[in-house]
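A note from the maintainers: we've had questions about how concatenated examples are separated. There is no special marker in the raw files; a new sequence line simply starts the next protein. For clarity in this README we add a label.
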Amino acid sequence: MIKVIVVEDSPVAREYLTYILTSDPAIQVVGTANNGVEALEILRHNKPDVITMDIHMPIMDGFEATRRIMETVPTPIVIVSGSSGASEVASTFRAMEAGALAVVRRPPGMNHEAFEAGSKELLQTVKLMSEIKVVRRTARERAFAPLPVAQAPRADARIQVVAIGASTGGPPVLQKVLSGLPRNLPVPVLIVQHIASGFVQGFAEWLSGAAHFPVHIASHSEVPLSGHGYVPPDDLHMGVASGPRIVLSNHPPENGLRPSVAYLFRSVAQVLGPSAVGVLLTGMGRDGADELKAMKDKGAITIAQDEESSVVHGMPGEAIKLGAATHVLPPEGIAAMLAALVKNRDGGHQ
């Protein structure tokens, strides 16, 4: 039985979420709270497997509640968002920085055509997140450190694109990696992050705030620009064609996902071969693992996140087992390596 605490300031929404969650015989709601203070009090007496967290609440909001929970009684937290407004999305990603694992939209009303799909996504997310063992967060982040001399690579003039894939736990890692890259990065960065529908625009804006360069929602057939990042729109695969140009596709999901990391990495392997870097970050399952191996076999430089820094080591761990990674590094090491690989590509600028 998966024990859940529902944190939501609206009594109607609280009752509605409890109804959906308890419709699954594997889930038990063991407590509800209408703000973060109440949630922390409940946690003194109950140890749930998952907490569903609203963002905008009185007294203590979802971001602050997430931060305090992860610093005191680490528990898997799923943000359940009732809005895709700018302030809600910004606060949602701040909560993910603080340790929340996933975000889902609150399912629409029972008479809505999307009720069944929304309820299924919520239930599936809660079940998946209940399996993750989270660790205590501290207020102090690990500082960026230079790579050991043995690992520091020489700049590679062949590199045209950096391709990054991530899933559970990915947003704060992406934030850390992108923030460690130089302002005028001489290559584009293509990013596939598994994230709930409706949050892509906010995700791109949030990453832009962390990086020293803009991150956009990609358009089909556009030429990716150096010093820019790109994420696919909702429910479309993103890859590359010769040029290189960005390709968006509604081909069937891969590994149950669209966009999938597999689609991006496979196209990069086929089109760019040794002229690319592939990076596979924290996430459940094995999306992108085989395709990172394909990139390596084509001569690309490939990097997998290490187990210690991964929330879930599924995707990078599977890649490492395959021998797909030429380097295994924590986020700050990944940023340092990428910066070193493309250093001076544009004639001396950094």
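[label: protein 2]
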Amino acid sequence: MEVTDFITHSFEMKKLFICLIFYSIMLGVQAEDWNQFRGPTGQGHSVAKGLPLTWNRTSGVAWQVNLDGKAWSSPISINNQIILTNALLVEGHLSLEVLSIEFGSGKINWRKVLFEYDNQPRIHKKNSYASPTPFFDGSRIFVHFGNLGTACLEINGDLIWKKKFDYLAVHGGGGSPVIYKDLLLFSADGEKDPCLYALNKKTGEIRWKARRDSNAKKNFSFCTPIIINPKDNPLIISPASDYVFAYNLDGKQVWKFNYPNGYSVVPRPVFDQGMVYFSSGYDSPIFYSIKTGGYGDVTKTHLAWKTRKGAPRNSSVVIVNNLLFMAADNGVVSCLNSRTGLPLWVERVAGSCSSSLVYADGTIYLADETGKTFIFEAKPKYKLLGTNELEERMLASPIVVNNSLILRTEKSLWRIDP
């Protein structure tokens, strides 16, 4: 080979190498898995660009899949699959299942019944028997139906294990499972003995139970925990009735913060720049921002700010560039300075809403219970970009897959394209 040929060849190889790196990075962005409740960060953020702004039942729909049964769990995405749980109640017989739907076509790849019951516990009329969202840890799928069962599956639907953990749930299941390293975490805040479970994710065996250090009048809550400081000093943040708790990975309580008379806590907390943000639940919610760190009861020492105005009972918030957006149950959305709690704008955006806010590409998506999705800018001044109707009840939160939205309504799963 001539020297000039060698130099040219090396240059071309270098260009190819750079292109491959760039392509891999872009592919990673485009193929971002929405692997758990509230997405890859657990906080409602997506890196996707160019999402849809306009659609209805006939326009902008790549596909629609009719779903029998009733479930309010949000779907997740893994590789080219959309995974969701479902509950079928036929003549008094309850079947709890998980389904895989092909992202490209909407075709059902597989479905597997995991638990069956002829006697069903009572649940709240707004709840379903399949409300917790699955979790994908990069290798396996984990599904949870509260006290009705928990299971682990391969991505092709093959069952690895399934377990049932009895506790006195009130109003049914709600909190979604969380995987961190070899632990599967879920809250079991029932009528008695409220606690946080940690299982061995490989076997389903109990590793530990952290009993709630409180004397709440109403023990039941439905909150999904988060992990903060995952690379430095990981802590499990788990709101429950009357307190939010922080635990080490061995289940030992590190600190707790009191919100008096808070119960039935639903919104998942968020973490940003050393602060944890959460709502106290029913009956009259208060939204709190607290500083992390400390030991023992930090109620009197770690409060940053709190507000009652516009605090959500059900919807989880998002934080973008020091702006905190939250939706009250009546559809009033507030934008606050996340560091100070000072309000920047308050607008009635939606009708009654339970789903959580989703952020992507400078915009926020909020679905209300009538099936309308509202899109507004994530900025300190309110600007509505679109209102889109599917004319079907919706409590599940939207998810982002590539530059598409996947929406679960009462009877269907929809893929919305730009």
